[in-house]
Amino acid sequence: MVGMKKWDTFSIVNYVFLTLFCLLTLYPIIYVIAGSFNEGNDYMRGGVYFFPRVFSLASYEIVFNDDRLYTGFFISISRTVIGTVTSVLFTAMVAYAMSRKTLMGRNAYYWLNLMTLFFSGGLIPYFLVLKNLHLLDSFLVYIIPTLFSVFNMIIFQGFFREIPEELHESATVDGAGDFRIFLQLFIPLSMPVLATVGMWNAVWHWNSFFDAMLFTNSEKLMPLQLYLMKLIKEADVLTATSKYVPPQAMKNFSVQTVRMAAIVVSTVPILCIYPFMQRYFVTGIMVGSLKG
């Protein structure tokens, strides 16, 4: 009975703590959503915490009438899809080669790759390399530099090593080459880790803005997060967006409500996709822990 009472007390405390933690996590989202749907002048009075006091869609009209939003969506979606697929396949291919004991110079390649995790040439040499490769102010600057990740390669390599060698030998006896073995044998068997690393890459590409800020100048290459950052940091959002609405409608929104509307619009896509990818993430982590 004593043990049962302690367990009940622990359960109650645990559930209370998790509930409070969940509310603390959700409240900033609720606060931003409520502010984005509130009328601008009324929001400036304060006191809008959970629900909009005076409902208005004016801030969303401003955001959706801004052409930079659609350009940012297109660039972000394009770099997320293309960058994720190419990075996962290229990194997995390198990891497959590194997992083969017959690869000549495998240890040297491994330590050279591992050294790049601890030492870097710095931002200026990196910029000069991209400049000499003619990648500046180009969409490829989002794709080519991210094709290979040493960290992800190590994860793939550890997973590939756990695949029974007998499967590889059997495929080799049947006349399959390395490319065919990689594509038709290793890739199907590695879907959990592929989905996990793919989700990491997709979230990174979707949230990335620093590379666009440094290596591109054209607004046609501006991803959604860079557009959002500029909108949040603009000294006078109303000046930048007033051309999209008539003067009589200016009172329906404010700098803060427009910023909140932009945050909501940019966050909704990843919030919709993440729950469907979460199960792959959990599966990949569980498989990795079991195989470790």
UniProtKB/TrEMBL annotation:
Signal sequence segment: none
Keywords of this entry: Cell membrane, Membrane, Transmembrane, Transmembrane helix, Transport
Domain ABC transmembrane type-1 as annotated: residue spans: 73-274
Membrane found in the keyword field: yes
Superkingdom of origin organism: Bacteria
Membrane topology: Multi-pass membrane protein
Compartment(s): Cell membrane
Membrane-traversing stretches: 12-34, 73-96, 108-127, 139-160, 181-203, 258-277
InterPro entries named among the record's database cross-references: MetI-like, MetI-like_sf
Primary residence: membrane
Pfam families named in the record: BPD_transp_1
Family: Belongs to the binding-protein-dependent transport system permease family.
Protein name: Carbohydrate ABC transporter permease
Phylogenetic lineage: Bacteria, Bacillati, Bacillota, Bacilli, Bacillales
